[in-house]
């Protein structure tokens, strides 16, 4: 096979893996209208009990997908993490815009001017090549919980071109507690203690204590400087 054919074959393989990863993110983010059966008080209680209990159902729902990450190439894992973080960041960015447009004090407090940037910077540790399986697992769990809390529906409504401002305002008022719960869960997940609890209790990385220790050190900022601009 000629060099050019090898290059084209590699490119086709890369593109296919990238599309599969992006589609997996979309599948999880839009995984059914599970929010219809949501009992908000139960979710609040679970988060009060701890981040592990809050995300336990989400982990159970995506466990088979997480197990499949073992077979993913580094590039496919990277594509999944990038697409997942982009989805989360786009939600936060849009919510910040809506908060400003509607002058909603509750949303403005949830989405401060530089808050989304800081969260994005912290999440970048999950994209370090040696941590991609961990990163992909954490992202999958967050996306699954977002689906249960109805975040995809919220994003669809506020980004719909024909949505009247009054309708958006009412919809946000009716769903603000779900949004608050989702944001608080992300904040708790980004805390090194919370993230390590998820990794250890769900045994996301088995038989790799040294890697987990390195990941913990990087999360705590011992070898990683986050952009605080």
Observed structural traits:
229 residues, disordered C terminus
| Coarse shape | globular
Distinct helical segment count:
11
What is the CA-atom radius of gyration, in angstroms?
Answer: 19 Å
Strand content of the residues, in percent? under 5%
Mean pLDDT: 82
**N-to-C span:** 49 Å
The total tally of domains equals 1
Based on DSSP secondary structure assignment, what is the total number of beta strands? 0
Q: pLDDT under 50 segments (min length 5)?
A: 222-229
- Helix amount, in percent? over 70%
Main sheet overview = none
Order of helices and strands: HHHHHHHHHHH
Structural class: mainly alpha
Report on this model:
With 229 residues, the protein is mainly alpha-helical. It has one domain. Helix content is 75%, strand content 0%. It is built from eleven helices and no strands. The protein has helices at 3-29, 40-49, 51-68, 74-102, 105-110, 115-123, 132-148, 151-159, 165-190, 192-201, 209-219. α2 packs parallel to α9 (165-190). It starts with a helix and ends in a 10-residue tail after the last helix. The relative contact order is 0.14. Residues 222-229 have low confidence and may be disordered.
